[in-house]
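Dear Dr. H.,

I hope your travels went smoothly. While you were away I took the liberty of generating a structure for the chain from your last submission, since the lab meeting agenda had it listed for discussion. I wanted you to have the full record in hand beforehand rather than looking at slides cold. The sequence, exactly as received, is reproduced here:
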Amino acid sequence: MAILAVKFFQWLAWRWNILDYPRSARKIHTEPMPLTGGLAIGLSFILGIAILYFGNFLNFIDFNVGHLWAIILAVLILMIGGTLDDLYNLKPRYQIISPILAILVIIFAGIGVDFFTNPLNGSLIYLNQWEFTFLGETISVFGAALALVWLLGLMYTTKVLDGLDGLVGGITWIASAIMAILVLSMNWLQTDVLYLLLIFMAALSGFLIFNLPKASIFLGEGGSLLAGFMLGVFSILAGSKIATTLLVMALPIIDTAWVIGYRLSQKKPVFSADKNHLHHRLLNLGWRPYQILLFIYGMSFLFGLSTLLLNPLLKLIILICLLSAFISFEFYLTRKTLKSEKL
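The corresponding predicted structure, in token form, is as follows:
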């Protein structure tokens, strides 16, 4: 189903001119590319949800019907907003509208962060100090605020990171797989969440067949945002597994933060295009795309695997060590890149 969706939206992209033309120095590809991969993933995911719903596979223990409709509506908002951006190259103040709307739909449907685990002693810290009711759903102010920051942060991480064939789709697939294993290993099996994870992974798999180097279709704006959005939603539905998702996505998140810090230091717009991401500089040093993908995939998988074996405190220690090692690696790459440019 996902493969058929990709082929259909490839055809639609050429017909409607939803294409990415290599007009800037940041672009790696040399030919126009369809930007409708996100539409294929979103449609496949929604059809998968429909099969689960009408096939009576869902028990609605981990979430309710309203939550499911909210997820579908949020996915549609991101698909529409992303397509409009790909067609008309919207200004940043308009680009932010669909992500914010999608997050608000999720929050006001009652999907929020209710608690998180204290990494020092493993106790649960609840965020139910201030609450209000909306359409029968109890919403925590702190939980909603944390969900907003969390979802927006993940969405813009995957958006900014989307610069190498197979990178965002592959990392998202790995993070979803780690989440699925975690759900299976928990004391109580969250079957509904597991089903959603599996159909999302199936949709990603159909897309990745055509997106790995050399790609014939890109995620597009909506697809790159959808990847981070769904990871954030899954982490909340799986019982506030934010630390787990943060560790799996640590490498991309830190790399994105590094690039944003560099742009600010150079007094450039935060979302300006450049080639300062880790994968760009590794390409400049002669790494092949598959080598970069295997390196980043491997690191994401290893850190994701550690979330299944370690307690919260050790996860925090690993995250700090990763941050220190990555900063050192970034300085090393910067010096090496400068040397190569002088030669």
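Two observations you may find useful: The two ends are 50 Å apart (CA to CA). The chain has 14 helices and six strands.

With kind regards,
E. W.
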